[in-house]
Amino acid sequence: MTLPPSLDRSAYLLAARGERPPHTPVWFMRQAGRALPEYRAAREGISMLESCMRPDLVVELTLQPVRRYGVDAAIFFSDIVFPLQAAGFDVEIKPGVGPVVAEPIRDAAGVARVRPVTPSDVSFTTEAVRQLVSELGGTPLIGFAGAPFTVASYLVEGGPSKDFAKTKAMMHGDPSLWHALADRLADVAIAFLSVQVEAGASAIQLFDSWAGGLSPRDYERFVMPHSAKVFDALKQYDVPRVHFGVNTGELLGLMSAAGADVVGVDWRVPLDEAVRRLGTPKPVQGNLDPALLFAGWEAIEPEVDRILAEGASAPGHIFNLGHGVPPNADPDVLQRITKYVQSAHVPA
Ligand code: 1CP
């Protein structure tokens, strides 16, 4: 697909392709959300997953942070468990908790409940992406999906987990059941990402947020083949493919090798060290500690400077937080960081 020049030469897409844009692009994971009063007002009385099915609301919530902060990319408003619900799975997002699954998956019958997602199951997603792409003009829209491991963790545990005990028990205790589940979830991710790209999203991000809970050995054996399947399937679209997880310092090389074009880095590993760990140098995204948002500008500014300097060692750098925007973050601080990064001298 040929992109309009303003989009094709946008700072985000240039950096994601390993080129040097005039300024370092910046956006924030979870930039839409409770940190914004306009988000809380628009979502009033509408459940999270219900919101994802209303194209007008999805468009509004996706655009809010672009308007407010002037970030270099929009991320499609949805959730990693949304495609499961669209495929008929009983999941809900409980306020203050996160995704909760009524009947967790523990056996082959459970795995069989994860049905393939077809474009007609998510026609509202196609509609919302099309509308967004036309409204965003030269600002790229990032489509996203949850990676098989992270989505499986919610399905097997029944909700958020700290140790992933049941998920790991399934991996090691019944590897063929685990691989069957992860394979179905790879297909769900492929379907949902393809729908977004076909409708005009110009990059995709695969969130394996909780992969950092695994050893490299387990990651390589149980997770990497399934994430690699997702990246392989998306290759045909020729859009940058970004891979991110929290606490993945030990996994950066493997997550890159799974097929990412850009690797997201949390705050635990400096970006220059992250690039070394990738093996093959690639563009990186990150890595301001979200906790710094509450530390005052005097503390934030030198951290941003450090990240920009370290990011210069990568073939491309997209400034971001090391994880999502906390709900109680001050929007003015995010706006100040955006302007600061966009006007900073790009280190050679
Ligand atoms: O800017 C944006 O907000 C984009 C939309 C977006 C994205 C990219 C949402 C909306 N969710 C996600 C991805 C997502 N969802 C991830 C991967 C990114 C990450 O690591 O943060 C994960 C792990 C989830 C699961 C999830 N959904 C949680 C975490 C629970 C846990 O296990 O600790 C929560 C709280 C949600 C709900 C949710 N999703 C999105 C929003 C705005 C919310 C908050 C609920 C609400 O406002 O009603």
From TrEMBL:
CDD domains: URO-D
Superkingdom, natural source: Bacteria
An MF annotation (GO) of this entry: uroporphyrinogen decarboxylase activity
Binding site for substrate: 30-34, 79, 154, 209, 323
Keyword rRNA-binding: no
UniProt xrefs under InterPro entries: UROD/MetE-like_sf, Uroporphyrinogen_deCO2ase_HemE, Uroporphyrinogen_deCOase
Pathway note: Porphyrin-containing compound metabolism; protoporphyrin-IX biosynthesis; coproporphyrinogen-III from 5-aminolevulinate: step 4/4
Residue span(s) of domain Uroporphyrinogen decarboxylase (URO-D): 25-34, 142-158
Broad class of enzyme this protein falls into: lyase
Coiled coil: none
EC number: 4.1.1.37
One Pfam assignment: URO-D
Residue numbers marked as site, Transition state stabilizer: 79
Keywords (A to Z) from UniProt: Cytoplasm, Decarboxylase, Lyase, Porphyrin biosynthesis
Main location group: cytoplasm
HAMAP family found in the cross-reference section: URO_D
Function: Catalyzes the decarboxylation of four acetate groups of uroporphyrinogen-III to yield coproporphyrinogen-III.
Quaternary structure, from the entry: Homodimer.
Family the UniProt entry places it in: Belongs to the uroporphyrinogen decarboxylase family.
Name under which the protein is recorded: Uroporphyrinogen decarboxylase
